[in-house]
Amino acid sequence: MFAQGIRPPVDGHVELDALVPLAEADDHSRGETGIAAAADMFVRTFSRLKGVEPDQLDVTLLGSSAGRAGARLVGLLPDTGNYRRLLQMIRAGKTLSAAQGRAYLYLATLWSHGETDQLRGTSGAAYASKLALLTEAISADARRISGQEWSPPLLAYQPASQLAYLARGKPETPFRPEIALAIRSAAHSNPDIFCVLPLYIGDFRDDIHATNLTYQEIGKYYGRALAKLVHARMGHAPVPPLALDLANASWSADGVRLRFAVPHGPLAFDTQWVAAVPNMGFDLWTPDEQLIPDAITGVTIVAPDEVLISFARPVPSGSRLTYAFGRPGDPARGGREYGPRGNLRDSEGDGDSYTDVSGTTRRLDNWALIFEVAKP
Q1: Sign (positive/negative) of CA torsion 217, 60, 76, 125?
Q2: Which parts pass through the membrane (predicted)?
Q3: What value does the mean pLDDT take over residues 295-305?
Q4: Would the pLDDT of 10 be above 90?
Q5: Residue 341 CA to chain centroid, in angstroms?
Q6: Using an 8 Å Cβ cutoff, are 131 and 154 in contact?
Q7: 161 with 199: CB under 8 angstroms?
Q8: For residue 336, which of 77, 87, 167, 274 is within the disulfide window of CB 3.0 to 4.6 Å?
Q9: More confident residue, 17 or 7
Q10: pTM above threshold 0.70
Q11: What is residue 3's predicted lDDT score, i.e. its pLDDT?
Q12: What is the model's pLDDT at position 30?
């Protein structure tokens, strides 16, 4: 990282002419970033995929952040202070690498963002559009500055604090997880945007801001996904599923069969790490967005990549099935115990886990992304 830290000040002069070993620091309200965990996990996963020891990789990672706490996406686009700081960091990385006789490229953007746009009522369509614009701008500027051919991907999480923000009483704050859905939508329509995990699996110190151990966990998910992505693209292979995401919904008169893109099967319901929630997080809503609390009579895993949702009665066209939205009247909380959440995951944690400094074993399963799907 640069000598002034992972996240140097955005305003005023900053020194970017020296590097020091990468280490997180709790900078009060600025908190930790998860970048150190992401870098470590990238090296571990990438070396495993290549079949070599980590110290045999001729790669040095430079981790830094040009982020700003509490900013809306519109305040991070090109021609803003944060974006200009990002370009300064890319130029500095190029300069320092050249001084050592090493090649340099800007590898990826880790995008931990969206809560303020949820609070302020930014529409999902506007957020997805601006996120695509930002990703394309970073890619173009990185290639221009470094001379690289690599198109840097953007890896993101889905915020899951919509009910905690709803309780703040701002009239523009929606019940629906607009930004979580927007990030998933952007990933579906842009080959350089990847939605990696939902934040309902995390712990929060105030229902909105994650704990340091959850930031570390987020970083590990980012690093693992990025390593898989880089390894695939370098080998000119299709990028494998990086998140547990709905791939297809087949509706019938009395239910819907959901097929998922699964990074590491089989599917499983887990009520140990994420507290149990009705219907494992699935709910059915009328076309005019009214919850039908007794509509679902069964939620069953019927194949390594499929879930069957059974209904008490036929549902009309336009009805919506949601996952991890929460319900009206649920606690105004966030996180894996009390927030809007779901219990569906894959089984990658069978072989991929770690013990954090508190002594808690954390499985790195892929948990289902927050989504909705309408009946045709």
Answers
A1: negative
A2: none
A3: 98
A4: no
A5: 15
A6: yes
A7: yes
A8: 274
A9: 17
A10: yes
A11: 86
A12: 56
Delimit the CATH 3.40.50.1110 region(s) of the chain: 28-234
- Pick the closest to residue 323 from 360, 358, 291, 282 (CA basis): 282
DSSP character at residue 176: S
- 28-234 folds as Rossmann fold (3.40.50)
Phi, psi (deg, nearest 5) at residue 83: -65, -40
* DSSP for residue 266: P
Alpha-carbon distance 374 to 194, whole Å? 23
The confidence score (pLDDT) of residue 33 equals 85
As a 3-state breakdown, the chain gives helix, strand, coil percent values, each rounded to 5, of 35, 20, 50
Tokens 């506007």 sit at which residue? 126
pLDDT digits over 20-44, tens only? 998 887 655 555 789 999 999 999 9
In the chain, the amino acid numbered 271 is T
* C-alpha distance from residue 37 to each of 54, 140, 216, 336, 340 (Å): 15, 27, 6, 21, 26
Question: Tell me: the pLDDT tens digits for 39-89?
Answer: 999 999 999 999 999 999 989 999 999 888 889 999 999 999 999 999 999
b/e per residue 147-185 (b: at least 16 CB within 10 A): ebebbbbbbbbbbbbbbbbbeeeeeebbebbbbbbbbbb
CA separation, residue 215 to residues 31, 38, 73 (Å): 9, 10, 20
- The whole-angstrom distance between residue 217's C-alpha and the CA centroid of its chain comes to 11
Does the pLDDT at position 233 exceed 90? Answer: yes
Residue the block writes with tokens 């629906």: 176
Instruction: Return d(Cα 282, Cα 246) in angstroms, integer.
Output: 13
Span of 19-28, 57-66, 306-315, 366-375 with lowest mean pLDDT: 19-28
pLDDT surpassing 90 at residue 299: yes
Task: Measure the CA–CA gap between 207 and 218, rounded to whole angstroms.
Answer: 16
d(CA 264, CA 7): 34
